[in-house]
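Teaching soon. Invent one.


***
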Amino acid sequence: MTAQKLTFAKAINTGLRRAMERDPKVMLMGEDIGALGGVFRVTDGLAKDFGDDRVVDTPLAESGIIGTAIGLALRGYRPVCEIQFDGFIFPGFDQITTQLAKMHYRSRGRLNLPVVIRVPFGGGIGAVEHHSESPEVLFAHTAGLRVVSPATPADAHVMIQQAIASPDPVMFFEPKGRYWEKGEVDTESDPLAADSVLDSARILRPGTDVTLVAHGPTVTTALKVADAAAAEGRSVEVVDLRAISPLDVTTVAESVRRTGRCVVVHEAPVLYGTGAEVAARITEECFYHLEAPVLRVGGFHTPYPVAKLEHEYLPGLDRVLDAVDRVLAH
């Protein structure tokens, strides 16, 4: 394996580049993604190398971006759309949920829409209103969409290429607060020759006392919790979901059967969140193995707060560790 140490953003950039080199039908669309390289510079340099007919600066119209991508996909292209910030996706919500998600079903399988929608999501950057949201569960609730979120540069590099190659529409949620974190990335091997990770969770850290389930931005938090718990003599197993829909219940359930306890953490509000689905499924699958109720830790049921209160809203080490303490107290 030839590994490079890349930031999360650069890992996606490199994955996009490889996908565009592999398939001339892959094209990028979004606001300011060309000469500027995107707000987070994820597409930096791609317009220069592939031209403005494949890296398209679009008007500020998310519904138009998604609608155009649907038309291009019907003509054989593989569009990759960038939504500049998570809170800006809602003008395109109608196109995503009523057209993109349903075309394959509506056509009885005759039509595929291989569209990837990249969404920088979550908190951690001290942004203003509408620039820090966690809307992933809204799309996971919509049948016909894959909803995934990488947590490491290595996964980001692989998963963006596998998402682009998928015949299904993929909502690709990128934890923007992790864009500058670095990790080892294998840039030589072919992700398309490997098994797909778009619907498989993985155990990042083995443990025996409690299973801690996370995805996207909270995976790093979960690993820090495991370190803190280990210092106190408790063993936490960390599971990275990677895919929110379809949900890899098998991997999570196998872990919970070993540990007997489960805590789920995400930045989105706890009420009706991804954690609720995980908790329900684990209760069904592992009822006779559970030593305690499945606990959830997440954002509060309020609009995302102003930057100065962000640290109170996001589930940090102390709040997650408290949930681990409570589930172990049973």
Summary: The mean pLDDT is 96. The longest helix spans residues 8-22. The two ends are 45 Å apart (CA to CA). DSSP finds twelve helices and 14 strands in the chain.
